[in-house]
Write a structure and sequence with these properties.
The two termini are about 35 Å apart. The longest helix is centred in the first third of the chain and has 31 residues, at about 1-30. The chain is built from 7 helices and 16 strands. It has helices at about 1-30, 35-50, 55-65, 70-85, 85-100, 105-120, 280-285, and strands at about 125-140, 150, 155-160, 165-180, 190-200, 210-220, 230-240, 245-260, 265-280, 300-315, 315-330, 335-350, 360-375, 385-400, 405-420, 425-435. The chain is elongated and about 85 Å long.
């Protein structure tokens, strides 16, 4: 993933130099010939790709001074103001362009796809919902070890049951609500909800259901060092099911600080505490929940993290996250240290048909997790403390078709290398299905 990001960065840099040279040539040309509208539109495209939105806006406003009836220029001006967060100005230009009635079907579809989102940004109470459903196939749905070998009490045993592939139907709902308190700073209450469920076709005991939520205010801090600086304390919680049993419950609190270092780059460090309760019913009606083979255990988890995003070009963005977690469990052998590194490269491409108004996104990603437990687990091997190194590689596709409906898919390879055979696993999964956005 690092090599891919470096390659894209080098190609983007070389491409940006060529684009910048052509933009400068067109800038001189349209300065001398402002009536050359096609050259102006070409200049706007290049300036937008270089994220020089102010130059693109200046060029369009100049041609509108010469000819106020250029509806395409007004449409492009609306989209540019939206990129700068000037939602009211953007909506005004787009409504005027739509009302003119002389745009072709493709340009009208572009306004229809973007205007509802821009108008929603102007509201003090904003709710957005994304739904994704479909089918997922896995090569190792029961997560058996790669060699079908286990250790129990330090003794190696061959498994009687093989690794099994399976398919499931899944449903994912992501909801976000922002409610502004009023005032000039833009302080708001942010609520995020995630609901996810799978239904395994052949292995129902591995079906899962998850409901998670966070809520907290975001306060913007007046200052002059960066574009925006905000602080967000929050509460968080989650409930999950494995098969037909309650498996994991979590609750806690955290805080983060987001700094917008420019229009293309932001960083957000934060810290979080969560209490975990794994399979709590077993503590009353069965064996103690503190002494298990599970990776997760009842206890506390403290996490420090740093998230960030950088837009290399208008159509290329790199997202990343680094986190360290300390888990303290009731059973000492399940206390652990975890380091997690994630990266995703988002490439926006033009859709295959001009009537599809939104760009498609292709996103290769990678994740590395190092998990080290404090002491050996007597149930597995009394002499060796578990240490895992897990890699996830994947490719995501988000393909909107209309302003509401589309399709999304994911191809992922997972490999967990462990010093204990019980936890050496590999899995390939493929998912695909329709999406809806409201």
């Amino acid at each position: 993933m690092g090599g891919l990001c470096a390659l894209v960065a080098l190609c983007a840099s070389a491409s940006a130099q060529d684009v910048r040279a052509e933009r400068d040539r067109l800038a001189s040309h349209i300065q001398a010939r402002p009536e050359d509208y096609e050259a102006t539109y070409r200049f706007v495209i290049l300036a937008t790709e270089l994220r020089d939105y102010e130059a693109a806006i200046g060029a369009l406003e100049r041609v509108l001074m010469f000819n106020p009836n250029l509806t395409r220029a007004r449409k492009e001006l609306g989209f540019l103001y939206a990129r700068l967060g000037a939602w009211e100005v953007a909506a005004g230009h787009l409504r005027a362009a739509k009302a003119a009635g002389d745009l072709d079907a493709v340009q009208s579809a572009q306004i229809d796809a973007q205007l509802p989102d821009i108008e929603k940004r102007m509201q003090s109470s904003r709710l957005s919902v994304r739904i994704h459903t479909g089918l997922r196939a896995q090569s190792n749905a029961n997560y058996f070890p790669a060699g079908n070998l286990f250790q129990i009490g330090g003794i190696g045993l061959a498994s009687a049951g093989p690794r099994k592939g399976d398919m499931n139907a899944f449903q994912l709902v992501l909801a976000a609500h922002d409610w502004e308190f009023g005032g000039q700073r833009g302080d708001q209450l942010e609520t995020r909800v995630t609901a996810y469920a799978t239904e395994q076709f052949s292995l129902p005991q591995y079906s899962v259901a998850l409901f998670a939520a966070t809520i907290g205010p975001r306060f913007f801090v007046p200052q002059t060092l960066v574009s925006n600086l905000s602080v967000r304390p929050y509460l968080t919680g989650a409930v999950s099911m494995l098969g037909s049993n309650n498996y994991l419950n979590a609750g806690g609190a955290g805080a983060s600080v987001r700094a917008d270092l420019g229009p293309d780059f932001w960083l957000e460090p934060g810290a979080e505490w969560r209490g975990l309760w794994v399979d709590p019913v077993r503590g009353v009606f069965g064996p103690s929940p503190y002494r298990t083979l599970s990776t997760l255990a009842t206890g506390d988890v403290v996490t420090g993290y740093l998230s960030g995003s950088y837009r290399l070009l208008d159509s290329v963005r790199l997202d990343g996250r680094v986190a360290y977690s300390r888990a303290t469990a009731g059973y000492a052998a399940q206390s652990s240290d975890q380091v997690d590194v994630q990266a995703m490269l988002r490439l926006e491409v033009e859709p295959p048909h001009p009537m599809i108004a939104r760009r498609w996104t292709i996103a290769p990603y990678a994740r590395f997790t190092s998990l080290a437990f404090d002491t050996a687990n007597l149930l597995v091997n009394p002499f060796v403390a578990r240490h895992d190194s897990a890699w996830n590689y994947g490719l995501m596709l988000d393909a909107p078709i209309t302003e509401t409906f589309g399709f999304a898919g994911n191809l992922e390879f997972m490999r967990n290398d462990s010093n204990l055979p019980n936890f050496k696993t590999q899995n390939v999964s493929v998912s695909f299905g329709p999406t809806a956005k409201f």
